[in-house]
Design brief:
With 212 residues, this protein is of the alpha/beta class. It has one domain: Vaccinia Virus protein VP39 (Rossmann fold). The protein has 8 helices and 10 strands.
Amino acid sequence: MRRFFFRDRAPFDLFGTVILPYLIQARATERNIRIWCNACSTGQEPYSLAMAIDEAAPRLTGWRIDLQATDVSRSAVRAAREGLYNQFEVQRGLPANVLLRYFNREASHWRIAEHLRSRVRFSNFNLLGSFEDRGEFDVIFCRNVLIYFDQQTKHDILARLSRSLRKDGFLILGSTETVMSARDHWVSAPQSPMLFVRPDGPHANTAARLRA
């Protein structure tokens, strides 16, 4: 499935206005942020995040941003690494000024600027596999993929995603997805129905207070 840039917009606004400001403050000592985009398809989501990070570049001087993007499809990952999109694809979600800033024209196509392509590490990964070697992340995007699994498989994936997220990290799901099958592992955040946090982390208490 081909996606478009800044799909649904709200998750990227959340990233820029809620998640990134928090992490800049919380990680001020270590200056390291790890982000994982699951089911990245042909790369539009992680490249959109790379653009959002680039917009915040003055606040991130000297920081290491580890932006990983995975998909089960080898052909999708190859296309994502290429970062080459046709006119129809770049018209979906990209204002003209953003297109001209972050893409280079190649005949009838547009290629992501090299400085953005180099910021994203693409690889093949199956959500049904082991997460143990991936380490812990500050932010996990797992949008519009859980809908394809049965309830037990969803619970298993959500449980393992929780263990792959730092206690004060953030999970973003698709607009139609929930954590009902794994409520022992996740608490919804008040800022958005797409945003979730760990119940044993500091954000869970804030969410509970705001809902009281």
